[in-house]
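User: Here's a structure from my thesis project, written as structure tokens. My advisor, Dr. K., wants to see whether a designed sequence matches the one we expressed. Can you design one independently, without my sequence as a hint?
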């Protein structure tokens, strides 16, 4: 009886799209995906070279990460010569929307308004955002010394 139930579960077609949430990705998996999105598709070598600019990693590490992303249903791959070419199965925008949906559902009982309220509320001890000094210098009718004084005042608030 149990084997029959398992057979039914295994024969049920998997819905299209990723099997895992974007929030479930390890940091390096997300880094590889962030590199892959603007490329549209790329080989491990392409991804490895792009990642090397920020922090060198072994080629085999990137290859393992891309294989994991394929197993998780986040990317698909196809053989091109001796290499695999990887393509994301969801765009960066779709990933952001799914991540926000998961946060809204998990932490805010499905209420986007509650999330917006949370994000707009000033946390205790948090400083108010002050625009960069260069932005205030361009203020019409204000001298450089006045704008610097204004920036200092905004910083102290």
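Assistant: Designed independently from the structure alone:
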């Amino acid at each position: 009886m149990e084997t029959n139930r398992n057979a039914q579960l295994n024969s049920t077609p998997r819905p299209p799209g990723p099997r895992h949430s974007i929030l479930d990705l390890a940091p390096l998996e997300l880094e590889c995906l962030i590199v892959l999105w603007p490329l549209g598709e790329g080989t491990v070598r392409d991804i490895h070279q792009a990642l090397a600019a920020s922090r060198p990693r072994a080629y085999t590490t990137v290859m393992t990460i891309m294989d994991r992303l394929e197993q998780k249903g986040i990317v698909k791959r196809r053989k091109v010569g001796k290499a695999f070419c990887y393509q994301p199965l969801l765009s960066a925008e779709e990933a952001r929307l799914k991540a926000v949906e998961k946060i809204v559902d998990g932490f805010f009982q499905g209420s986007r308004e509650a999330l917006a309220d949370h994000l707009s509320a000033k946390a205790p001890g948090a400083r108010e955002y002050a625009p960069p000094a260069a932005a205030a210098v361009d203020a019409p009718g204000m001298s450089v010394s006045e704008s610097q004084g204004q920036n200092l005042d905004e910083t102290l608030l």
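When you compare it with your expressed construct, this may help: The first strand starts at residue 42 and ends at 43.
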